[in-house]
Amino acid sequence: MDERDEIIIEPGKSAVSMGLGGLWKYRDLLYFLVWRDLKVKYKQTALGVAWAILQPALSMIIFSFLFGSLANLPSDGIPYPVFVLAGLLPWNYFASVLGQSTQSLVANANLISKIYFPRVIIPVSSAAAALMDFAIASCVLIVMMFWYGASISAGVVLIPVLVLVTMMTAVGFGAWLSALNVRYRDIQYAVPFLIQVWMFATPVIYPRSLLGEKWGWLVYLNPMGGVIEAFRPALFGNREIPWGGLSISVGVGFFVFITGMAYFRKVERHFADII
Amino acid sequence: MKPIISIQGVSKRYSIGEKSSYGSLREEVMDALAAPFRRVLKGEARREEPTVWAIKDVSFDVNEGDVVGIIGRNGAGKSTLLKILSRITEPTEGRITMRGRIASLLEVGTGFHPELTGRENIFLNGALLGMTAKEIRAKFDEIVAFSEIEKFLDTPVKRYSSGMYVRLAFAVAAHLEPEILVIDEVLAVGDAAFQKKCLGKMGDIGKEGRTVLFVSHNMTALRSLCKSAVLMENGKNTDYGESGKIINKYLSFNSEVKKQIWDSPDSAPGNDHVRLHYLSITPILQSDELITVKTPIRFTAGFWNYLPGTVLNFSVVVYNIEGVAIFNTVSRSQACTERIVWGSFDIPGNFLNDGTYTVRLLIVRDESVVLFDKNNLLIFEVHDIDREGVWHGKWIGAIRPKFDWELK
Predict the structure, then answer these.
(1) What is the number of other CB atoms lying within 10 angstroms of the CB of residue B200?
(2) According to the 3-state scheme, what is the secondary structure of B240-252?
(3) Contact at CB, A1 and B2, closer than 8 angstroms
């Protein structure tokens, strides 16, 4: 009996916040929650997983027509459709994690009020599940690159790192927003709007160079700015990877991640009482 | 030996204000901005939020291998205590020490996803309850066999009947193997055969030397499963001991009104024609006996009659807790003088179902004019304990007569 774990329950000693250690201990649950989200996502849809291809493909066609053909936006020497798709992929991933993780805690309120587990698993599982759509949509990009005869650069090895940075940033924001949403349901109405505005503030449909030297640096304060600016040269090798700008963005993303986790840990013990 | 669970002075306070549940961000921001000015202007501290103590100063120990029932009325704090033990919410004060792995089942089927199949939900639910994928795979066949849903294993659970759903959910939970198992009212589900199976399983869990804490309103099940019990009243644990003793104490402590006497007509309910003097409902054999479904009971009423030479009769209506009139019984009419008029009748045993009943009395003149009519004069409870057989669920029906069955 003495070798058993002793569990102490006391005020202020939060049992549900186990941080990243808790994620590891409950990795099977994380796996099943991701798996649930994936299984359920396209149930009772006629097109199923095809949606993961259709959505970015249709956006690409519309943006190429509006901004590429009509507005004639520059695209750093890459065919505009490929350019915009390479921006949309990481952006869509980021945006869908943000949207889903914001809702995630409230959507799983019954789990939170009835079952004990590290709460952070919920927004993290949203981020992990969205990777599947990203992977499927990437196939569209690969096909498009072949179509336009674009060659893949050696910098492609950087892509997984950039995806990880995106994930970290998205989980950071997701931790903030989902926890705030438990208390203030205003968040879930504000976030879709925020995502819309944010996309235009990020060089998704235009290159950073469009902003000129005077304002261009501002893009890197946006953590997704640096990621997307690095994503394209890493893929196409059309220009230098902006290491300086990327590191600023990664720094900002890391800051959001750390503060998001800290805030989440601080408030998660009250989730069951107020959700 | 150290107790496996030691609860020391645990209290939990909840805010009950509208704002603290969840307000809008704007309100909170405006409030925060206005707060310092309010303090400066009025020189007062932030106003107190309305709060309520769901449980207050609860302390008891549980020894390893004990199966402990937690008994109390709705709102006594039983579920809050289980939530704190399950680490879903934290106490406001106090400390709990547990020595062993704990699993809790506060609701059957939490986390079941309607779109997923039975097979998929077993894995998801198992993982939620704290099993690893390996443990679930090892137990999978046992869980399926226990739930009796083999044929529908690959059907989405949204197409399940509620009985199938509950069986599957309980089957997953029943195969957890923690040292401490915490269960909220979950036995009130399923059909008789499945209930028997669940109770049997719970009995086995206890026999295996694991510790079980369980909340139920089902006294029959509690009596048969638990060695000891904790009684909770208004957020406090008021007694702890052998389960039979605690159950009796709980059953005798309630809001029953089985007798009312008015010695003086001045304060008695009534009017210029009649006033109540005495009302009671008592077991016929021993007056201190608990009223169970088997107990014959006697209703007695007496009233002052101020109308000489009138023809009066009693009429009594008994309602159940849902307000359904179970029966109306009427006495014969009788010419009465100015005195206390008495009337009584007996309700046989094996007639009323278990539950809470209220009594309405009418006094009628000439079989047509209602002189007096008042509801909720008496409130009594018919208990259901020591039932024979294996069915522990709520008996269906407004009444529960025991007819003479002839079997061939």
Answers:
(1) 12
(2) EEEHHHHHHHHHH
(3) yes
Does residue B291 share a domain with residue B187?
Answer: no
Determine the distance in angstroms separating the CA of B301 from the nearest CA of chain A, rounded to an integer: 49
Task: Mark whether B145 and B161 lie in a shared domain.
Answer: yes
Is residue B408, in this structure, part of any structural domain at all? Answer: no
Q: Does one domain contain both B149 and B22? A: yes
Q: Answer whether B110 sits within 8 Å of A115, measured CB to CB.
A: yes
State the pTM of this model: 0.74
Same domain, residue pair B291 and B320: yes
User: Do B98 and B32 fall within a single domain?
Assistant: yes
The C-alpha angle A64, A65, A66, rounded to 5 degrees, equals 95
Which member of B102, B111, B115 has the closest CB to residue A7? Answer: B102
The count of domains in chain B is 2
**For B238-259, how does the pLDDT look when each residue is reduced to its tens digit (9 = 90+)?**
889 888 888 878 877 666 788 8
**Domain residue limits at B138:** 5-252
What residue type is assigned to position A70 of the chain? L
Question: Which letter, b or e, does each residue of B51-80 get, where b requires 16 or more Cβ atoms within 10 Å of its Cβ?
Answer: eebbbbebebebebebbbbbbbeeebbbbb
pLDDT at B283 over 60: yes
Q: Do B98 and B168 share a domain, yes or no?
A: yes
For B109-132, what is each residue's pLDDT tens digit? Answer: 788 898 899 999 999 999 988 888
- The residues near B33 (Cβ < 8 Å, ≥ 6 apart) are none
pLDDT at A2: 46
User: Per the CB < 8 Å rule, is A16 touching B87?
Assistant: yes
B238 and B268: one domain?
no
Contact state of B87 with A116 under an 8 Å Cβ cutoff: yes
Mean pLDDT in residue range B305-315: 91
Residue among A14, A15, A39 minimizing CB distance to B116: A39
Q: Return the beta strands (E) in chain A as ranges.
A: 6-9
Residues of chain B contacting residue A38, judged by C-beta atoms under 8 Å apart: none
pLDDT band (50, 70, 90) for residue B20: very low
Residue B392 within a domain: no
Beta bridge partners of B11: B93
The answer on B248 and B276 residing in a single domain is: no
Domain stops at, among B252, B274, B291: B252
Q: What is the DSSP code string of B284-352?
A: SS-TTS--BTT--EEEEEEEEE-STTEEEEEEEEEEETT--EEEEEEPPPEEE-SSEEEEEEEEPSS-B
Please judge whether A111 and B128 are an interchain contact, meaning their C-beta atoms are less than 8 angstroms apart.
yes
* ipTM of the modeled complex: 0.84
